[in-house]
Specification:
- The protein is of the alpha/beta class and 236 residues long.
- It folds into 2 domains: 130 residues, TIM Barrel (Alpha-Beta Barrel), CATH 3.20.20; 78 residues, no CATH class.
- 44% of the residues lie in helices and 13% in strands.
- The chain contains 10 helices and 6 strands, in the order H-E-H-E-H-E-H-E-H-E-H-H-H-E-H-H.
- A 6-stranded parallel sheet has the order 1-2-3-4-5-6.
- Strand 2, helix 3 and strand 3 form a beta-alpha-beta unit.
- Helix 2 packs across helix 3 and helix 7 crosses helix 8.
- The longest helix is centred in the middle third of the chain and has 16 residues.
- The structure holds NADP nicotinamide-adenine-dinucleotide phosphate.
- NADP nicotinamide-adenine-dinucleotide phosphate binds next to helix 9.
Amino acid sequence: MPSESLAEENEQPIMSTHDMPFIIYGTAWKKQRTGDLDTVPYDPNAPVYEQVLASCEVSLHNLQTRYLDGYILHSPFKVFEQTVEAWRAMESLYHQGKIGHLGISNCYQLEVLQNLYKIAEIKPTLVQNRFYDETGYDIELRRWCREHDIANQSFWTLTANPHLLTNSVLVQLAGQYGKAPAQVLFNYLRQRNVTPLTGTKSVEHMKLDLNSFDVNFSADELHQIDLLLEEFATPI
Ligand SMILES: NC(=O)c1ccc[n+]([C@@H]2O[C@H](COP(=O)([O-])OP(=O)(O)OC[C@H]3O[C@@H](n4cnc5c(N)ncnc54)[C@H](OP(=O)(O)O)[C@@H]3O)[C@@H](O)[C@H]2O)c1
């Protein structure tokens, strides 16, 4: 929960559409699962459009702000029309000046993202996905995002990739640059236009994570990690 002063600071937009900040103040709308029915901040029987609007209002209230930098659809629906309905509600929040950027999460099929992009009046500018081998590290999807000015965020960056963190390529780069393998992975992602999210609860790890980005790997070093991802990636 933000402090009063943080809430006040965030009442005004803090970035332009093409200027994604390092720290984003935002939240997501998530369809309820059966077990969540008592806790969701909206009427689960209402139309999806109404659910998104109600949920956002609760988030704004809880975060003590009138404006969010980003608002993310937690995942596409199985039925595309419902994804569109949720997106239209998010666009309405954008037009009301309550949201700066619209994004989608857990969207691993490029075709779904392309279809969303096609119908969107307000285009997605953020995709937040799990970074792991089973979705091919989103190699194609990330390429398409770059071409369409869509920022990428990664989660599960460390928990899903112990095999990368112990791989000789990362371990050697870590030694060479005086970093931990986790920092090497974070910095590689930054240089490949992905913002890694950290889920640490430790102050020490957070400091380490924030201190990942003061080195620049050469094109050849980046390419070595690209090849590693291609090697481990499972095609989806
Ligand atoms: N869109 C979605 O569906 C979705 C799903 C999950 C998460 N997320 C977002 O992603 C964010 C990151 O969460 P995550 O689950 O992806 O976390 P993560 O960064 O993959 O995992 C963090 C775990 O790694 C450990 N760790 C060890 N060394 C670390 C280091 N140097 N730095 C950081 N962690 C270290 C942490 O333990 P310690 O606590 O001991 O450091 C923690 O258990 C979350 O805050 C959430 O906002 C989004």
